[in-house]
Design a protein that fits this description.
With about 475 residues, the chain is α+β, with helices and mostly antiparallel strands. It has 10 helices and 28 strands. A hairpin with a 2-residue loop joins strand 25 and strand 26.
């Protein structure tokens, strides 16, 4: 398939014409060509960008002192059509705890549909959340439509600082907006302990752009617009997008399975500093020194040892632990990677088959709540019955039935130790509870100031928690 002219070609033409002629008419001609290239790119790709409207029940954070356990919230964001049959990629925070999702197709599509006598696209379409991945802040939504225009992923690893990019979306609810800028940095780490890296851009991104595409000059998705650094609440030229090579893997897994399995190497390592190299008498002053290994983990099985120094992964040099974690973060379990290891004065290339990270995603429990079914007001918690979906997040529970604490109020309506998200309540004063309805029933028969002893599981351990209801 013949590719459309890239924007950079028009910029080159504009520069050449201006330099060769030295005349304003030539410059104007080159600028017009550049403008038309942008216009063509916007028209071709904008039809695949949607607006997402969400109504949700949000659980309070630890600092919230309000009396409400669940509060209603309406919000909107952007999304990207990635298939003709209606699969949409957006940010997880756009559809967080959503109980109602509506998708409005691009106004260009609406206009075309009206011209063909189809008015069904004028109205928002019901959307269904297929899966959410909080670690990457990505989610997949599905609408029941066919023959939709869609975008494709580009290769974010090929991005260069200074490269022109275009951001599409619905900032502040203003649908079908486009802005242009450059790549400010290709791999920006925001939090020191977070393996996620972002594309930094000065293309204006504002609230409502979240979930929209960051495009290269060929109209391919190289990033998902996600967040901004701001002191005013608006764009200040520092925006961040999730690289497409991370988004592609997350999208594929969410679409197929509804959740993401993450890879790990079973390595505890530290970036080598000059002081570390000097104090430990290391053979090199760069790379990652292995301080510990997960017993029987993938690295041990591959033959790695403590004090080995990792200098490259799949042929790419790695100088810091963050570089390695960021690369592994986007891999699926079962992927083979080759680590170049310096051991003493020699070098080894060792293939390691990644394994799945252990541990549940407790934050995802809050996304399952239904305010009509899950609030236990006597304890100030939102509880969930133990279902197959819950067991995917917190496997290997000690009992098959009970109530999982998904969230709690900061000010509990009882005296005693606070329950925690992830706690599982099995008994109340030796009365077995099989679910939220059972728990509410037992508590409703108790009087104010009556002593209540819960049998709970916390971090795999059974314990009693003594409370006194207000």
């Amino acid at each position: 398939m013949q590719r459309k002219p890239a924007i950079w070609m028009w910029i080159a033409a504009f520069t050449f014409v201006g330099a060769a002629s030295g005349r304003a008419p030539g410059q104007a001609s080159g600028l017009n060509q550049f403008s038309k290239a942008l216009e063509t790119l916007s028209a071709r790709t904008g039809r695949s960008v949607v607006q997402i409207f969400v109504r949700s029940y949000v659980t309070p954070d630890a600092s919230d002192q309000s009396s409400e356990l669940l509060s209603k919230e309406s919000s909107s964001g952007s999304g990207i059509l990635l298939s003709a049959d209606g699969y949409i990629l957006t940010n997880a925070h756009v559809v967080r705890a959503a109980h109602d999702v509506k998708v409005q197709l691009n106004i260009r599509m609406e206009r075309e549909a009206r011209q063909q006598g189809d008015r069904s696209l004028n109205r928002p379409i019901n959307g269904r959340v297929i899966g959410i991945d909080r670690d990457s802040d990505l989610a997949v939504v599905k609408i029941e439509r066919t023959n939709l225009p869609f975008l494709t992923f580009g290769d974010s690893d090929e991005l260069k600082q200074g490269q022109i990019v275009v951001a599409l979306g619905n900032p502040f609810g203003l649908d079908d907006s486009v802005s242009m800028g450059v790549v400010s940095a290709v791999s920006r780490q925001i939090k020191g302990d977070d393996p996620m890296v972002y594309i930094q851009t000065d293309a204006p991104i504002n609230p409502g752009n979240s979930g929209g595409p960051l495009l290269d000059a060929d109209g391919q998705v190289v990033g998902i617009n996600t967040l901004i650094f701001t002191q005013s609440g608006g764009s200040e030229g520092i925006g961040f997008a999730i690289p497409s090579n991370i988004a592609r893997e997350v999208y594929t897994q969410l679409k197929a399975k509804g959740h993401v399995h993450r890879a790990q190497l079973g390595i505890v390592g530290q970036s080598i500093t000059p002081d570390m190299a000097d104090g430990l008498s290391l053979e090199t002053d760069h790379g990652i020194v292995i301080s510990d290994l997960e017993p029987n983990g993938p690295a041990v099985k591959a033959g790695l040892q403590t004090d080995d120094i990792i200098t490259a992964l799949n042929g790419r040099p790695v100088t810091t632990l963050h570089q390695m974690e960021a690369y592994v973060f986007r891999l699926a379990p079962g992927t083979t990677v080759t680590l170049r290891v310096q051991r003493g004065t020699g070098e080894l290339d060792l293939p390691v088959v990644t394994e799945e990270q252990s541990g549940g995603q407790l934050d995802s429990l809050a996304d399952m709540v239904d305010p009509a079914k899950n609030v236990v007001s006597q304890l100030g918690i939102v509880g969930l019955d133990i279902t197959k979906e819950v067991l995917k997040l917190i496997p290997e529970l000690r009992r098959p039935a009970g109530v999982v604490v998904a969230a709690r109020k900061a000010n509990a309506p009882y005296s005693g130790p606070l329950l925690q998200a992830g706690d599982v309540i099995y008994e109340v004063n030796r009365h077995v509870v099989n679910g939220v309805d059972s728990l509410r029933g037992v508590l409703s028969r108790m009087k104010s100031s009556e002593s209540v002893v819960l049998l709970i599981e916390r971090s795999g351990v059974l314990m009693y928690v003594a409370l006194q209801l207000d």
